Amino acid sequence: MSAPAAQHLDVTPRPSAIIVFVDIRGFSQWSREIESHESTLSLIQQFQYIIKKNFKWPYLKPLGDGAMLVKEITNHSESSIKSEIDQICKMAIKCEKEFHRLTQKLAREYGNPTSMDLGWGVTRGKVIKQVVGDTTDYLGHNINKASRLCDLARPKGLVIDRDDFIDEPAKYRTQLYQQVKILNKPYLHVPVWVSKEIYEEFQTREHQKETPEVHVAGVCIKETLSSLEILVAQRNAKRKLFPRKWEGCGGQLRYSEMFDAGVIRHYRSEMQIAVSVVSDVPPVVYSINTAQEPVIPGLRFLCKYVGGTAKSANHDEIKWVPLAEFESMSEEDFPPGLKSEAIQLIARYKERQPSS
């Protein structure tokens, strides 16, 4: 590469991170009512102190009556992400309790009730990290997205991007509900977890959307001159559902996402490989049935391996097995129905191949 071409390389760091925005609800009205610049400044300082003390994250950017927090992450395993969002919810509860005590104190001092609360927006993804001297800042569409989610947290409470945090957090003060929030471009419809106060806010019929959970999954094959091999992955022992079972790859379908695009996305993000969906082989219908949980319907597709080396933090082992070996494995080694569904898909594929 020539020297001039090298100068145009973009070497800006783009780490993965969790982004939290928090904002004081009712601040503008309160500041107008008391008409005291010193008191307003004091409230903001105490609010910032509460956030900083409870989160202890390395990056906190004060934004007047709000704040932006960023935590870079390298562990993207299912258990790690679940732990992160649970911790965020616990810290949010602590902040809310301390902020409530602060507003009660202010109400006594000024002789009038206050109606200030906190709203939160949480997302996860790549960010642009800018370092100039001793100053660090974060930019990018995920920062913007977290800010918009925070703006939707009204009258108060929590809005969490459900694409980035699939499992419902277990540590917040209210039950969290599934909704689809309407944002401006480029996000449009965003599936989210929301706290009870937000969920129960009035919505017009045009903005109400059901959010059933639908899954997609794949059975990935690779053909050689002498055999057909299937990619199987063993779920690790810490997985809540089907630990140590062998599977293909799959998960939730995103809002407004086509089935084949969902399968391709899951293989790319979970196993780091590229696949193509075999469109002329009809998928099979399956469902996930667990006690005291809603039934989750799904479609399982046949896929062909395109490229990459399969690896996953959520699996103990990933391997290619010849069809004969796959057929000899016990049904008990797989989640219910998966082995027979895979064999059915491969049989449909062979039926469509030209005879030699």
UniProtKB/TrEMBL annotation:
Residues 18-150 form the Guanylate cyclase domain. Coiled coil: none annotated. Pfam families: Guanylate_cyc. Signal peptide: none annotated. Keywords: Plasmid. It comes from the Bacteria. GO terms for molecular function: adenylate cyclase activity. This is Adenylate cyclase, family 3. It comes from Methylobacterium aquaticum. The lineage of its organism: Bacteria, Pseudomonadati, Pseudomonadota, Alphaproteobacteria, Hyphomicrobiales.
